Structures are given as C-alpha cells and as structure tokens.
Amino acid sequence: MGTPAAGSGGVYVLAAHPHWRDSRVNRRMLAAARGVPGIDVNDLYGSYPDFALDIEAEQARLTKAQLVVLLHPIQWYSMPALQKLWLDDVLTYGWAYGPGGVALQGKDLWLAATTGSPEASYHPQNYHRYFFDAFLPPYEQTAALCGMRFLPPLIFHGARSAPEADVAAHVETFAQRLGSYPDWPEIEEIDACIACPVPETDRPADPDDISKVVSSAFHAAMTRGLAAATASKAA
After folding, report:
1. Neighbouring C-alpha atoms within 13 Å toward the C-beta of 1
2. Where are the beta strands (DSSP E) in 74-118?
C-alpha cells in the first residue's frame, strides 16, 4: 500500500479508477496531484488491487488531512466500486459518525469527478433525464453525516470527446486548486457543516449481535431439519 507523502497533512486525494490505462482525464489529474508539493495521494486501485483495505492506515491518513478529495469518474451515476467500499469500511460508526464519531468534523470534502457524456446529456429532455446536480445528494449527505463541509464540486463533462485544450486547462485548474487550498475565495461564503446527530436508538447492530442472530437461526434450522428427518425415518 502507498504511504503518505512527506510533509502531508493538509490534503488527502483519493483517486479511484478501475482502468487507468483507458483514462483520458483522471489519469492526468492523478499525475498533476502527485506533482503538487505536500499532497498525500492514494491510487486506491493501485494500493488495494485485492480490495482488502487497510482501515487503520486510511483512518490515520484522514486524521492528518483537512481536505479530503474524491477523484474519480462517474460510473452508473455514482462512484467506482472500490471507492464505495472505502466509504463503507473506513467511515465507521463511532469514528466518522454517530455518538463519539467526530474524527472528521470540521474537515472539508471535495468531489473532483469526470463524466463520459457531455454536460448537455444531463437534462430532463436528454438521455440522462436529470441535471447533473441531481446525482450529488449522496456525496453531500455523506459529508454532512460526518460533520464535514461539502465544497463546490469540480466536474469535467465529456471526458471522452472534449478538446485537448479543455482537458489541459481542467487539469491545470485542479492542480492549482490543490496547491492553493485553503485559500479559495468561495470557502468563506460556504455555510458551516450541517449537524446530523445519529440517535443511540438508531445505532447499527454490533457485529457480535448479528453473529448471534445468524448462529441462532442456523441452529434452529438444523434442529428442525433433524427433527423432520427423524420423524421421516420413524414413519
């Protein structure tokens, strides 16, 4: 697994692309991020090809960062599979959200994503049927649940067909934004993080409790099966 860059602690870039060789824009954005001094960059598919995440290491990197960047292509109106698994496994209850889950409070979350389709395709009268903003609430609410501030996303549409000049300008903007954080003029105008406390009564069941339920159900099923088999032999 990759290790944090020396001097990191301000920005953590999580880059997720299942096929970097086929990437036209994200690959260049990843290279640009690696060229910004002091930025901690993690190629998730390169670090975890077996999808076995190092949760403690990821949480340690998050703890050091003030800005967390999600860099990935939009796939089926969401994020790549490994990025979703990262959210599921790393942002744990009691650490990232819920009672005692304050590790990420006050930090910033920034989405830097690309789409293969042009922006005009995200329209009620076109084939994606919705404006692109309609697909952002899961990202916004993830930030809110963790007490993070969701910064205005940086979206590049039409990655497959955009002119080379547009791609180069976008990559340059991305690198400039990373290098200048937190001195972004719009940050001061963004509202503070929304508080989304999770009641104790809504706490997810502990893994041990789930295991007990599964074990009990299995035992009951086996008991019924043995009883039925015994009755059948007796008959």
Report:
1. 16
2. 108-114
CATH superfamily to which 11-198 belongs: Flavodoxin domain (3.40.50.360)
Q: Give tens-digit pLDDT for 83-129.
A: 999 999 999 999 999 999 999 999 999 999 999 999 999 999 999 99
CB hemisphere CA count around 179 (13 angstroms): 12
Question: What is the distance between the alpha carbons of residues 102 and 129, in angstroms, rounded to a whole number?
Answer: 37
Burial class (CB in 10 A: 0-12, 13-18, 19+), 127: exposed
As a whole number of angstroms, the distance between CA 103 and CA 170 comes to 32
**Running DSSP on this structure, what letter comes out for residue 35?**
T
| 13 in Cβ contact with 178 (< 8 Å) | yes
pTM for the predicted model, two decimal places: 0.82
The domain ranges of the chain are 11-198, 205-234
